[in-house]
């Protein structure tokens, strides 16, 4: 058992090394590194919390969260691709039929298939209201799906998209999602699906975040995840899984503090008391954010649901502060293109803008406190 544990650790260290080596180039050209993605897909780690019975590693969400943190410390773009993949896995585990689990989970566990979430649209951003992507029932039991999604991480890389669509009338507004909405699992090879990752992002430039277009795609009823109109309750249960994008931010914070420490030692500034105070303050914030993210992911806490959003908000705000303060510590060199700190600072900003955006996450958790 111990030997197997060491093998997994060595494998992870090798994967992280390869991903780190490619991160700067991926950022520069604005494309996901094929080599980084390949080592991750072949590692089996993308199936971390898929049960053994479906071909996964049978671990829990906390283990997956720690993996996302490690990925975030070497390349946050790869970390968010992995995070979105795991989010779709969670939804299939929670709401999928046995047929859907048997069909998709082994492929997603082995990394043969990659999954992505296509919810956001140009006219339906933060709170996913007013969707333009429509699924119409056809007389022959099938559905016709049409519309365009934007900001899909892993666009063009994924083999399976979890797509949020309008299937009925907007009758009641929810804070996140709307009534009359449903989820479909749409395979990339479905006729009418096209993708491009041409969004010229400021950070997370190696995440292939882009557009998915569905042009009169015909899908069968077994592509529905959950039942018709069930999307709002699926969305509201997501945080119960404890998965928090905050893990990506914790990884960024950890890496940036390491870079700042190395700089201080190299420049003979490590004995300066002002930097002792600063490094102590920042590492306390890092540990607080890690604790919150891991507490949410442990799932054995009655607060887990709210903690998942709160930890995401806190960890992303902390990582932005750590990036800013460490850029100051690292001086002009830290402000130069090609320096890891500069790239990670741009990447850190994105987490606050990702689903749910921080303001919406605060709105949801704050409102619940008043009940
Ligand atoms: C790097 C990156 C990767 C992403 N990956 C994905 C992905 O894989 N799949 C996907 O579906 N989407 C993804 N998104 C989109 C993301 O989830 C958000 O939906 C999107 O960034 C916000 O939409 P918008 O830009 O249209 O903002 P808008 O909807 O225009 O909102 C602008 C701002 O208004 C405020 N705001 C708006 N509505 C509310 C509200 N109800 N309560 C409180 N404040 C509010 C917030 O501050 C918000 O930032 C990604 C975004 C980024 C930056």
TrEMBL record:
Keyword flag Flavoprotein: yes
Which Pfam family name is an example for this entry?
Acyl-CoA_dh_1
For whether the record's keyword set contains NADP, the answer is no
* Cofactor(s) required, per the database record: FAD
Acyl-CoA oxidase/dehydrogenase middle domain boundaries: 117-217
Family according to the record? Belongs to the acyl-CoA dehydrogenase family.
Question: What protein does this entry describe?
Answer: Alkylation response protein AidB-like acyl-CoA dehydrogenase
Per the UniProt record, the source organism is Fictibacillus barbaricus
């Amino acid at each position: 058992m111990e030997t197997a544990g060491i093998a997994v650790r060595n494998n992870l260290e090798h994967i992280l090394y390869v991903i780190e080596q490619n991160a700067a180039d991926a950022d520069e050209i604005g494309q996901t590194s094929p080599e980084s993605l390949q080592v991750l897909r072949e590692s089996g780690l993308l199936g971390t919390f898929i049960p053994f019975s479906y071909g996964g590693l049978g671990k829990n969400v906390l283990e997956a969260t720690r993996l996302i943190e490690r990925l975030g410390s070497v390349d946050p773009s790869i970390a968010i691709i992995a995070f979105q993949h795991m989010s779709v896995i969670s939804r299939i585990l929670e709401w999928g039929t046995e047929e859907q689990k048997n069909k998709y989970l082994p492929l997603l566990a082995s990394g043969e298939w990659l999954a992505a979430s296509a919810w956001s649209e140009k006219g339906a951003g933060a709170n996913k209201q007013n969707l333009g992507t429509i699924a119409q029932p056809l007389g022959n039991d099938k559905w016709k799906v049409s519309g365009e999604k934007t900001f899909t991480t892993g666009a063009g890389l994924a083999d399976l998209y979890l797509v949020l669509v309008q299937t009925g009338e907007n009758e009641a507004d929810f804070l996140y999602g709307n009534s009359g909405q449903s989820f479909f699992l749409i395979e990339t090879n479905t006729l009418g699906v096209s993708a491009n990752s041409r969004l010229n992002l400021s950070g997370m430039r190696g995440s292939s975040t882009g557009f998915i277009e569905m042009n009169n795609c015909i899908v069968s009823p077994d592509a529905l995840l959950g039942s018709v109109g069930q999307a709002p309750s699926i969305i509201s249960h997501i945080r119960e899984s404890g998965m928090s994008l905050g893990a990506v931010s914790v990884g960024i914070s950890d890496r940036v503090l390491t870079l700042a420490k190395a700089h201080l030692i190299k420049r003979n500034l490590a004995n300066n008391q002002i930097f002792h105070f600063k490094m102590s303050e920042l590492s306390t914030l890092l540990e607080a954010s890690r604790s919150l993210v891991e507490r949410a992911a442990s799932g054995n806490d009655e607060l887990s649901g709210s903690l998942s959003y709160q930890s995401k908000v806190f960890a992303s705000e902390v990582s932005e502060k750590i990036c800013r303060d460490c850029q100051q510590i690292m001086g002009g060199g830290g402000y130069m293109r090609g320096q890891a700190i500069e790239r990670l600072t741009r990447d850190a900003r994105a987490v606050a803008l990702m689903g749910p955006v921080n303001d919406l996450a605060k709105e949801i958790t704050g409102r619940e406190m008043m009940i």
